[in-house]
Specification:
The complex is a heterotrimer. Chain B is an all-alpha fold. Chain B has a single domain, classed as MetI-like (MetI-like fold). Chain B has 15 helices and no strands. By secondary structure, chain C is mainly α. The chains are: A alpha/beta, B mainly alpha, C mainly alpha. At the B-C interface, helix 5, helix 6, helix 11, helix 12 and helix 14 of B face helix 1, helix 6, helix 7, helix 10 and helix 11 of C.
Chain lengths: 328, 287, 329
């Protein structure tokens, strides 16, 4: 049950542009276990989606720099394009954040699905589409969407069709990239729980659920990892992260939530001022120090990953001092 | 100091360091210099007997002589002047008309005003310009440079109006424009400050394309003998060449070189345009 | 769908109306006195005065009020009576046009369609192949920068004069008698080839550039990214990109038709090819205003019909129009 299916070690991926390097994924490590939903949180522009792209659709100007990524024991960073092609949709899949224009406007949904699966050597026959229809039932869509063009579908319908397509070959690992950000609150909940149900039914294996919205993660994720400006911030079981956040950034994120059912008392950090720093040619040091009320001289050096307790890790020089501060 | 300047004018920096821009601009400037100083460099008049007829290019006659013994280089540089001036004026007028019509249609997008402007534009799009120009020119017995420019520009603006309209439509709905509208700024000011400033690079590139188009339209009219009634033009040089069977007689220096200069210049401007596109568009700038 | 078509048809109707009105107004507005010059020209022809009288009544009707003149002008248009040519006296303008337009159709339809197809294919190839792109793009730009008549001069110099592969003047050899026999057809197409090639090459450049840019744009679109992430092959993604990239190219075809017809006028002049373009220019040089006006209308109608055909094609390939989602294309 605790088998690791995805293991990332010290991964670095930068955008190389004329002006230099944008260090959007900088020394990230994590592992995802079979059947688990790992939430990945942080403000927009903190490297979450870049991490997703690094894993599944790396393309210039985004370049893999160093580190190791093992999916089902295979090194997917140094794998040939053809080999990785075979793993797509079966072993690794994605529900992208751009659901509204993820379809070619001139193809019917049925054609799109048929073309896609034939690329994986599957015959898009009646029998196959029976399965597609079952899945459509599962996400509460009428079978007639198959014979429609994308522009005939609403945003919420497109989102659900995408969920069906991305999971059609029962992928063992799937990235859900900001899938709720374009939706209204009630659809957000529906889509998020749908994903959890797909996992419970065993249709999909593990999920990396990327969002800027911690309240959704609280509902569906087993563990949560927080990123800031391309760096690792904190990781731990959901209850730990929500109930006992140790990193000032995590605290700030949680305190800025309107209602999570958790009372968090630190008044200094209700809401975070400023914006994440530009990642272009960024140097050493904790990247949160520019906005952190606890920043000190030692923060000029990049903090190392430290263990708080079992499964709960942090990258902050001063978490112990701050921790006592907030408990008062 | 210099560093500060480039930091501020980043787009300009990328523009002038782009290889395509440098290459294209160099050729373009050379052709312009040829048109400006060429007539001063040549000892001949464009319509005088300058040397033995049928001479291929030589040191005395860089582009050879034609069947009447006129110097083809002299005719070419004088003709280039006229054609460039007409093309430039026409291109400028057409760009202005296209932008104004496009802005207004886009800004009032969806209204009856937009409908009317677009119908007008679409009518100009389907009418064959050259045929219309022929009809207009044929009945105008005296045509100067200005009249020519107006005739050419009258049929050159529609594509730009359509393109500018589409751009304006997409910009119109962005927040800062809405903000200005809510704060009830005057329309010309919104157009100028919010929309036009955001479209500056786009319009500049369109201007280049427009100039290319009006040059081609101008030279075609001239070739048909419908250019300015006085003086010489590039198209006229080539019309004479065709009328006197320069091609059949193998006089490529008469029949081909004058047009080659124009074609190379327009190609160079396309390079500038593509280069600028890469420079102004941050997405294309990434390596 | 019906809205799309009816809107288009309305535009075409207005265009036709304006073209006819323009034809009516221009000789009456322009400085100089075309009528006086007509009178003097007809007087030297045999039976000229009667013909002249008929022509003037038909075309100018100068004694009547303007509105009546205008009304009569429309009547003559619908009866297909465009008057008598001065140049080829006494042949009716309609007859001359009917004969010349066949040359144009045989020249322009293949040149337009083939340049579109080949240009799109080459452009798509250039868009996905960086090495080929570096070589092909300058060529495409050069072609699209060429004035039609200049490129016509170039191909006729190299392929006609230097290599002697093709004749460079006329529509068929003087010694030939037009007929539906093999030698004539071969001769005809030999004469046809260089004018065709000139138009084909200039147009090719434009289409290739357009498709290349479309392919690159489509390749960076979100659906391409999605397909790639889910394991679609490059080939499949290219196929999708081409399918979508073709749409603006079809719209572009409608925009180009007017330009192609214009270019053909100059190309026919270079090759002395007896289509409407050559005829139009001759009528200008000979001040044959009846023929000129007739040809102008014929050219406009040709452009309108071609545009309409493109609209219909577009309707079939873009589902958005079929489902009335996008009005303006």
């Amino acid at each position: 049950m605790n088998e690791t299916i995805l293991e990332i070690k010290n991964l670095k991926a930068y955008y190389k542009i004329l002006k230099g390097e944008v260090k959007a994924v900088d020394d990230i490590s994590l592992e995802i276990r079979r059947g688990e939903i790992l939430g990945l949180a942080g403000e927009s522009g903190c490297g979450k989606s870049t991490l997703a792209s690094t894993l599944i659709s790396r393309k210039p100007p985004l370049h893999y720099i160093s580190g190791e990524v093992k999916l089902l024991g295979q090194d997917i960073m140094n794998m040939s394009k053809e080999e990785f092609q075979k793993m797509r949709l079966k072993n690794i899949s994605i529900i992208p954040q751009y659901a509204l224009d993820a379809f070619s406007p001139t193809k019917k949904i049925r054609t799109f699905i048929a073309d896609l699966v034939s690329e994986h050597g599957i015959k898009p026959d009646e029998e196959f589409f029976e399965k597609v229809k079952e899945r459509l039932d599962f996400v509460n869509l009428d079978h007639s969407v198959l014979d429609r063009y994308p522009m005939e579908l609403s945003g919420g319908m497109k989102q659900r069709v995408i969920m069906v397509i991305s999971t059609i070959l029962d992928p063992e690992f799937i990235i859900a990239d900001e899938i709720t950000s374009a939706l209204d609150v009630s659809s957000q909940r529906f889509v998020a729980t749908l994903l959890a149900r797909l996992r419970d039914e065993g249709i999909i294996g593990s999920v990396l659920f990327i969002t800027h919205d911690l309240s959704i993660l609280y509902q569906i994720a087993e563990r949560i990892m927080v990123m800031y400006a391309g760096h690792f911030v904190e990781i731990g079981p959901t209850d730990e992260i929500i109930g006992n956040p140790c990193h000032p950034y995590t605290k700030a994120l949680i305190s800025s939530l309107p209602r999570v059912g958790i009372q968090y008392k630190d008044k200094k950090l209700s809401g975070i001022k400023g914006t994440p720093p530009s990642l272009l040619n960024i140097g050493e040091g904790c990247r949160f120090r520019f906005r952190c009320p606890y920043a000190a001289g030692e923060c000029e050096e990049t903090p190392q990953r430290e263990k708080i307790n079992d499964g709960h890790y942090i990258a902050c020089w001063r978490w112990q001092e701050i921790g006592s501060d907030s408990n008062e | 100091m210099a560093k500060e300047f480039w930091k501020k004018h980043e787009n300009l920096y990328y523009a002038i360091t782009n290889k395509k821009v440098i290459f294209g601009l160099t050729i373009f400037i050379l052709v312009i210099l040829l048109a400006i100083f060429g007539p001063m460099l040549t000892p001949y008049e464009y319509d005088e007997y300058a040397g033995a007829p049928y001479s291929p290019p030589s040191r005395q006659h860089l582009f050879g002589t034609n069947i009447m013994g006129q110097d083809v280089f002299t005719m070419t540089v004088y003709g280039l002047r006229t054609t460039l001036i007409v093309g430039l004026i026409a291109g400028t007028i057409a760009t202005i008309i296209g932008c104004v019509v496009g802005f207004l249609a886009g800004y009032y997008g969806g209204s009856w005003f937009d409908e009317i402007l677009m119908s007008l534009t679409n009518i100009f799009v389907v009418i064959p310009q050259l045929a219309l120009l022929i009809i207009l020119s044929a009945f105008l017995e005296v045509r100067g440079i200005m009249v020519m420019s107006i005739i050419v520009s009258a049929t050159a603006w529609p594509w730009l109006a359509r393109a500018v309209r589409a751009q304006t439509l997409s910009l119109r709905n962005q927040d800062y424009v809405n903000l200005s509208r809510i704060s009830s700024l005057k329309v010309p000011r919104i157009l100028r400050e919010d929309i036009a400033s955001n479209m500056f690079s786009y319009i500049f590139m369109s201007y280049i394309l427009q100039f290319n188009g009006t040059m081609l339209a101008t030279v075609q009219l001239e070739f048909l003998g419908l250019g300015p009634t006085k003086g010489i033009s590039l198209g006229l040089v080539m019309q004479n060449a065709v009328n006197w069977n320069a091609i059949q007689l193998g006089m490529w220096w008469w029949g081909i070189i004058p047009g080659l200069i124009l074609t190379v210049m327009i190609t160079a401007l396309y390079f500038v345009n593509t280069g600028l596109d890469a420079a102004f568009n941050p997405r294309l700038r990434e390596m | 769908m019906a809205r799309y078509l009816s809107k288009k048809i309305l535009i075409y109707a207005i265009t036709f109306f304006l073209a006819v009105t323009l034809n009516f107004v221009i000789p009456r507005m322009m400085p100089g006195d075309p009528i006086q010059s007509l009178v003097s020209r007809f007087q030297i022809m045999e039976g000229g005065s009667e013909i002249l009288e008929r022509q003037l009544i038909l075309l100018f009707n100068l004694d009547e009020p303007l509105i009546v003149q205008y009304f009569n002008y429309w009547k003559s248009i619908f009866t297909g009576d465009f008057g008598i040519s001065i140049m080829q006296f006494p042949r009716p303008v309609t007859e001359i046009i009917n004969k010349a337009i066949i040359y144009d159709i045989i020249l322009l339809v293949p040149a337009t369609i083939l340049s579109w197809i080949v240009g799109n294919k080459l452009g798509a190839f250039s868009g996905v192949n960086k090495k080929a792109d570096n070589v092909l793009m300058p060529i495409f730009y050069f072609l699209t920068s060429s004035p039609y008549f200049w490129l016509a001069g170039v191909v006729s110099f190299f392929l006609g004069v230097k290599l002697g592969l093709f004749p460079i003047s006329g529509a068929y050899s003087v010694s030939m008698v037009p007929g539906f026999n093999w030698p004539f057809i071969v001769d005809y197409f030999k004469h046809w080839f260089l004018p065709f090639l000139s138009i084909f090459l200039v147009e090719l450049g434009g289409w290739a550039i357009g498709m290349r840019n479309m392919i690159i744009y489509e390749r960076s679109s979100n659906y391409s990214r999605y397909m790639e992430a889910l394991g679609a092959s490059d080939k499949m993604i290219r196929k999708y990109g081409f399918r979508n990239g073709v749409l603006p190219q079809v719209t572009g075809l409608a925009l180009r038709i007017a330009g192609i017809i214009g270019g053909a006028i100059t190309v026919e002049t270079v090759f002395n090819y007896p289509g409407l373009g050559r005829m139009m220019l001759n009528s200008v040089l000979n001040q044959d205003y009846f023929l000129l006006q007739g040809i102008f209308l014929a050219v406009v109608v040709m452009a309108l019909v071609a545009n309409f055909l493109v609209d219909i094609v577009y309707m079939f390939i873009d589902p958005r129009v079929r489902h009335s989602f996008a009005g303006e294309v």
